[in-house]
Design a protein that fits this description.
Number of helices: 21
Largest sheet: 8 strands, parallel, barrel
Number of strands: 48
């Protein structure tokens, strides 16, 4: 712009053609990088890998459209013990170097699990660094008596005697060889005992050389010791560093202590937890018990965060990023996600809206720290083994994109040597996305779809309007239990009774984009231009759901943000108290003084009060929607039609990813809450199907005419200036569907165990219904070919609908390949390829591998020959596919052509 201001008008006129030529194509997809493509977890079973097969599989991955791999060594296959390679051995490191070199040649990325299986641990973890638990016991001792019971086995942390007069005596030093040497003085005494027990867990699914104790998740020192093992092993490493180190979801079972906990607690909370041991066991006033439990949980959370930062700092020193799954940890999740470079969530079977809030915590962390990527372990247990379809995979991917994820990581692909008989080596949990998993033939089509989506979802900046405060203090200050893990699939049990959870659902259902913010990120937020910014990203308001507890520092910061021009929304009433025990009355006084400065007065919006603070305001009311309306924040109206969205900001407009998750088609004008002069529709199912949308102004934004069937998705790119490009091809039906009739020739072209005999049929049905026994166990691809006459009548276009397909298809019409038949709905416009007279339609249909797996178990063929858990179903019981029904396979139809005419909205 500075250059343009300095140019004279004649020079500008001379430059105009070049400037116009340089304008980006509004209908073009970005050139994909490997980070825009889906990645996969790559299980190295037993580390029994070799260079030729590593290169072979990487080449297959690249050809299929994957962008990278995450290496996770795990347990091996029976019968391959002579090929097991110990983790971190020189031979293993040489194979890693080969992998990173070959991956670079193929433009693939490589991440590496910091350990084997999960959680981090192994034979090099000493007892001092291993995860531990705390055993808490109470005993009654009468005056003049001694403890008759033995102390629990383990390392005694504290023995506190409390009399009926509340006299406290620390007896820890009077324990010798597990026995308490103490005679109770007069009165009645209660002994409170804390004994550390451990190690409490072995590494799950460990690879050879990785078996051993799990690392202490609350000890930064232990993490440092653990990483020292990697430093020594990698000292002579000659290969390229991984793009990122990875740690899987928090599954440190039984770990709720660390040897230095009392010391760390005192440093962070300001008092001696040993003196409050009765409250930790639940004795005493309920409020005191809850506050001590709060301080215990807050200390554990801060220790785990410090543990994670040691790992991230180490990775950075060695030229790598970190990728982390924080869910499951007993922490303020967004903060711990943000301790890594790439926060990663997961889906575990469910695509229900009830888990959205948990999935959004990782993307919120990415947005708050200014990160570009938010990844997801994708499709774990989407269905039973070998039963997931690409249609289900697409719906799951769309769900993840809607939660802010922009990098899919498959769970996963097991390394399998070329000589392994079908179905090759297996990881215990579905979905197997590898060459023998049943989805491989058409997986490149899904990869291309996901790449197009991710290329735009990784661009620009997040454009959510609301920072939704997470009142973790109301969760932690509870008298029952010890640590409170926050898992994705149990979110309703842990957060379902919290107002935060209901408010998040309200925002989602009414079209308000939000990110979840913690005390830490509020503490670094800035106000300006009537908005809140954190690390360069911008939100219109902060919304505090009904919260009873809040730290003084957070309340003061909210007031300061308002003073700087921000709008703060408080649902229900203003917070009433502070969490924790230390200096409680002093902090309560400070809290009340801060609240007293707020003068709430009624507003024109019913049920909303307002306190003017500097250039901004704090609004208080029971209804979050009323609060948002009073603040001038509008939701996206498209959600009322069944559309869900995620929105990104670009310098000249916005990008919307839209998915129809409703049961009805959308065909009409759809309102949006952002301004636009033009909008482009891009269909990620078709690389060349794009055009300018019909748009018109609307109050508070604009409207675009959209057509989406249930399950379909679009990218909508809006512009704050006019753009020139071809129009989107709107169509409407011009008559009824006309069946494609004749004789279908069915030829089996790929798969096994053998290719069944070809057949002809005038009536489409599952090939499993025929008499040929080979068809009932076949997994692979059949080609359906039919010659038919072009339907009578004129039409601007024709819609080919395959009807029911089990489970994915490729289509050629008169020799022209047509995209987008790999997922339901199996239809696409084909008019440009229809010719007068006779036409030839070829449909290649690939079924699931399930029927072939079923046949193996019916015949009791040994294909499940792996250590550890072997192969299981979703119920985690040994898989027996012999009880499965036969799955429909092939082209079931009916296949129709429907005339379409151009629609002018």
């Amino acid at each position: 712009m500075r250059l343009l201001r300095r140019l004279a008008l004649p020079a500008l006129l001379l430059l105009a053609p070049a400037l116009l030529a340089a304008a980006p194509d509004p209908l073009a997809w970005p050139t994909p990088t490997n980070e825009m493509r889906p990645w996969t977890r790559w299980w190295w079973l037993g580390n029994a890998v070799d260079q030729p097969d590593l290169t072979r599989e990487l080449t297959q991955f690249q050809a299929a459209g994957l962008g990278g791999v995450e290496i996770c060594p795990i347990y091996g296959a029976h019968g391959s013990e002579n090929k097991f390679i110990p983790f971190l051995s020189p031979e293993w490191l040489a194979l890693l170097a080969h992998t990173t070199t070959e991956a670079q040649r193929l433009d693939l990325g490589v991440d590496l699990t910091t350990g084997t299986g999960w959680p981090p641990g192994g034979p090099f973890v000493s007892a001092a660094d291993a995860s531990t638990g705390i055993i808490l016991k109470r005993f009654e001792v009468a005056g003049g008596g001694r403890l008759a019971d033995a102390l629990p086995a383990g390392r005694v942390q504290c023995v506190l005697a409390v009399s009926d007069q509340n006299e406290k005596v620390d007896l820890t030093t009077q324990v010798h060889d597990g026995q308490l040497d103490w005679t109770a003085p007069a009165g009645t005494w209660r002994l409170y005992v804390a004994v550390e027990s451990g190690p409490v867990q072995k590494v799950k699914r460990a690879a050879p050389g990785g078996e051993g104790d799990v690392l202490d998740p609350f000890s930064p020192r232990a993490m440092g010791d653990y990483l020292g093992v990697f430093d020594r092993a990698f000292a002579g490493y000659q290969g390229l560093p991984p793009r990122a180190q990875f740690i899987d979801s928090y599954e440190y079972y039984g770990a709720d202590w660390t040897p230095d906990f009392f010391k760390e607690f005192a440093a962070r909370r300001g008092y001696d937890l040993r003196q409050e041991l009765p409250a930790l066991l639940g004795d005493g006033p309920a409020d005191t018990v809850a506050r001590v439990k709060y301080d215990y949980r807050a200390t554990a959370a801060s220790l785990h965060s410090a543990y994670t930062r040691v790992w991230t700092d180490w990775a950075h020193r060695h030229g790598s990023l970190t990728r982390l799954q924080a869910h499951g940890s007993p922490t303020d999740l967004v903060d711990v996600y943000a301790d890594a470079d790439i926060p990663e969530t997961e889906i575990f079977g469910s695509l229900a809206d009830s888990t959205v809030v948990m999935n959004k915590m990782s993307s919120s962390a990415a947005h708050l720290k200014g990160g570009r990527l938010a990844s997801a372990e994708s499709f774990t247990w989407l269905n039973e083994p070998f039963q997931a379809t690409l249609s289900q995979v697409k719906q799951a991917a769309d769900y993840l994109f809607l939660t802010g994820v922009n990098l899919i990581v498959y769970q996963g692909i097991p390394y399998s040597p070329a000589e392994a008989p079908w179905p090759g080596w297996q990881f215990y949990a579905a979905v197997n996305f590898g060459p023998d998993g049943g989805l491989w033939r058409d997986l490149p089509e899904f990869n291309a779809y996901a790449t197009r989506c991710q290329s735009l979802l990784q661009a620009g900046a997040p454009a959510n309007d609301v920072l939704l405060y997470f009142p973790i203090h109301d969760v932690w200050q509870a008298p029952a239990g010890m640590l409170i893990p926050l898992t994705v699939h149990e979110v309703r049990q842990t957060l379902g009774n919290q107002p935060f959870y209901a408010t998040a659902a309200t925002l989602w259902d009414h079209g308000f984009g939000y990110d979840i913010v913690t005390d830490h990120f509020l503490g670094v937020a800035k106000a300006g231009d009537h908005a809140v910014t954190v690390d360069g990203n911008r939100w219109k308001v902060v919304l505090v759901p009904a919260a009873h507890l809040m730290p003084v520092a957070t309340l003061r910061q909210l007031i300061e943000l308002a003073r700087g021009g921000a709008t703060i929304l408080v649902q229900g009433e203003l917070p009433a108290d502070v969490p924790g025990l230390k200096e409680l009355e002093d902090r309560r006084t400070q809290f009340k003084e801060a609240l007293a400065a707020l003068n709430l007065v009624p507003t024109a919006d019913a049920g909303v009060e307002r306190a003017a603070v500097g250039e901004g305001a704090i609004l208080v009311g029971a209804d979050p929607l009323a609060l948002l309306h009073a603040a001038g924040v509008a939701g996206e109206p498209c959600t009322a039609l069944g559309l869900r969205f995620v929105r990104r900001a670009e310098p000249d407009g916005y990008t919307y990813f839209l998915a129809n998750r409703g049961a009805q088609p959308v065909d009409g004008w759809v309102a949006f809450a952002t301004p636009a002069q033009a909008a482009a529709i891009l269909d990620p199912m078709y690389p060349d199907r794009a055009g300018l949308a019909a748009v018109r102004p609307a109050p508070g934004g604009f409207e675009a005419y959209l057509q989406l069937a249930p399950g379909e998705s679009r990218l909508l790119r809006t512009f704050d200036h006019p753009v020139t490009a071809p129009a989107w091809p709107y169509r409407e039906t011009a008559g009824g569907a006309q069946p494609v009739t004749g004789t279908w020739h069915v030829q089996f072209v790929d798969g096994g165990p053998v290719l069944p005999a070809a057949y002809d049929t005038p009536q489409l049905a599952s090939w499993t219904t025929r008499d040929d026994p080979e068809l009932k166990r076949f997994a692979g691809t059949a080609s359906y070919t039919i010659a038919f006459d072009r339907p009578a009548g004129a039409a601007d276009d024709w819609l080919l609908d395959l009807g029911a397909v089990d489970v994915s298809a490729r289509v050629k019409l008169n020799g022209h390949e047509i995209d987008a038949f790999w997922s339901a709905p199996y239809r696409a416009p084909v008019g440009r390829w229809l010719q007068p007279g006779r036409n030839t339609l070829e449909v290649e249909v690939t079924n699931l591998a399930a029927n072939r797996i079923r046949d193996l178990d019916v015949r009791q063929v040994k294909w499940k020959y792996f250590y550890d858990i072997n192969v299981v179903g979703r119920n985690y019981r040994p898989l027996d596919a012999s009880q499965w029904p036969l799955f429909d396979s092939g082209l079931l139809g009916p296949v129709t052509l429907t005339p379409l005419k151009a629609l002018t909205p």
